[in-house]
Amino acid sequence: MELVISMFFFLYGITFGSFFNVVGLRVPLKESIVTPPSHCTTCDRRLTLVDLVPVFSYVFLKGKCRGCGERISAIYPLMELLTGLLFVFSYLHFGWQWELLVALLFISMLIILTVSDLTYMLIPNKILLPFGVAIFIARVVSPLTPWWDSLLGAIVGFGLLLLIAIVSKGGMGGGDIKLFLVIGLVLGTLQTLLTLFLASLIGAIVGFIFLRKTKQGRKTPVPFGPSIAVAALIAYFYGSQLVGWYTDLLS
Ligand SMILES: [Zn+2]
């Protein structure tokens, strides 16, 4: 039975992931997420059912548009697969607790923001706000212990990022600052601090690899959002273990 439910969560996840790609790509352009129907951005060919099966279509079509042969970015099937895997993982991690709702909302928001940030270097308010409200409500239903740790986490996350933005004079985007408010709500104070630490670490590694790849050393800005998303999920699922190991090391 567990296997059947897991399969169900996976299929749900990749289907939602496919929708999250559309949302992440269209919302920053102020386009409707319903119309026009999905089409190839190069030749405008309308996508049919064969093109729209999450993950499988990409593999089946070998990553190319059936109309014009233009390559389709591997980001989309990767995001679908990732959403599927994270949905299953959340179910196996929490079971049928209210926290599962927090997890699914949090993952959904982070996936959409990653698509937006990778594509446009933008974390849109139109995503942060509705998800922020939904996550706040889910956090009231499934509170942290103590409950006020959510509020403190939100204040600390927002305040700290704002401070970094002021000190670094625009080195941190407004979207990143607001994102940390939502992260604070979900994770509480300690794990929010851990997220910031891990995100900086991941960001530094990604930046290093990226700089080495573009040999001329051109300063192309690398979006910070995806690093924050990965860090937040590590802190969410494994934060207390990580903090536990660290304090064991010190004692
Ligand atoms: Zn095409």
Describe it:
- The protein is an all-alpha fold and 251 residues long.
- It has two domains: 1-95, no CATH class; 97-251, no CATH class.
- Helix content is 71%, strand content 0%.
- The chain has nine helices and no strands.
- The N and C termini lie far apart (43 Å).
- The mean pLDDT is 92.
- The structure holds zinc ion.
- Zinc ion binds at residues 40, 42-43, 45, 65, 67-68, 70.
Could you list some keywords that capture this structure?
globular; 0% strand; 251 residues; 2 domains; 9 helices; mainly alpha; 71% helix; binds zinc ion; single chain
Can I get a quick summary?
The chain has 251 residues and is mainly α.
Provide the succession of SSEs: HHHHHHHHH
End-to-end CA span: 43 Å
Specify the biggest β-sheet: none
How many domains?
2
- What is the CA-based Rg, rounded? 19 Å
Q: What's the number of extended β-strand segments?
A: 0
Helix content: over 70%
The small molecules bound here are: zinc ion
Name the poorly predicted regions: none
From the spread of the alpha carbons, the general shape counts as globular
Going by helix content, strand content and strand pairing, the class is mainly alpha
Question: How many individual helices?
Answer: 9
Which strand-content bin applies to the residues?
A: under 5%
User: What value does the average pLDDT take?
Assistant: 92
